Amino acid sequence: MIDIYDSEFRKADLNLLVVFAALMREGSVTRAAAALRLSQGAVSAALGRLRRLFDDELFTRTRAGIEPTRRAVELARRIEPALGLIQAAVTGRDHFDPATARHVFTLGMFDDLEAALLPRLLAAAAGLPGIRIAVRQANRNTVADMLDHGEIDLGIAAAPAHGPDHRTRDLFASGYTCLFNPRLLPLPTPLILDDYLTHPHLLISYDGRRGIVDDLLEARGLTRRIVASTTHFAGAALQLTTLPALATLPSHAATVYADTLGLTATEPPLPMPQYTVSAIWHTTVADDPAHTWLRHLVGGAERSMPRSQK
């Protein structure tokens, strides 16, 4: 139980925290004042008190409005869920109504998962005018840190690295699929290893030098001929519309690109590992009704994916 008599705690006027949350959400003193139906002077005065309370600048001025400091981002991660729980206790509304809510949900995932999941998320939220979904580029090594700093609400990645402050839930298993343009490379399917090694490859890699395929081939004493590389799966798929080459990428994205761009998707002619895609979030939002709804939305999008994408 918290110590409600603690002198430092008693300084934390709940109204100040409401102003803080509005400033974080609106990114502008003027817009926060309008949203709270307060004067701009009253919000500026509250910001001054917040700065003294937390001994931090909290927000710095920019041409577009105000930018939160690192300390403000860390505070927001704890304050906003707490305010949601307090609001529910005071008003008796302990649920999130997406039909009437005005909320921006920020997801962190790489573009292969965005291709597979975002269209389904947008379709599910199409009839909810106050719901907005934003996506930031993230991978298994960055999602936890982005969650810790309040940059995203939910991360989606393959085997995301995480710590004791995070929770995860497995979404689906995936693997690897080979893509090529049948009009430029009229190859029979399923591919045989000789064809796979004879024709040029487009590499998708962070460092532009090698990928998992190269590791697997090297273990067999084999190599492939790479003619170009890119860091994004969608970019690689787009290049295949004019490039007579092969690309090996996650199955959940490969089927989307194949259907959209008229490419052929087939299994690679060598054993490739399977992996699990998971959702990850911070423990501080585990019981937040809005976040619970978001997790259900993502789960529903995953369940609607064709089996061929998983």
From TrEMBL:
Species: Streptomyces lonegramiae
Protein name: LysR family transcriptional regulator
InterPro entries, per the entry: LysR-type_TF (IPR050389), LysR_HTH_N (IPR000847), LysR_subst-bd (IPR005119), WH-like_DNA-bd_sf (IPR036388), WH_DNA-bd_sf (IPR036390)
Residue ranges annotated for the HTH lysR-type domain, each copy included: 13-69
Segment forming the signal sequence: none
Keyword Secreted on entry: no
Alphabetical keyword list: DNA-binding, Transcription, Transcription regulation
Coiled-coil parts of chain: none
PANTHER family noted in UniProt: HTH-TYPE TRANSCRIPTIONAL REGULATOR LEUO-RELATED, TRANSCRIPTIONAL REGULATORY PROTEIN
Keyword Transcription: yes
Assigned protein family: Belongs to the LysR transcriptional regulatory family.
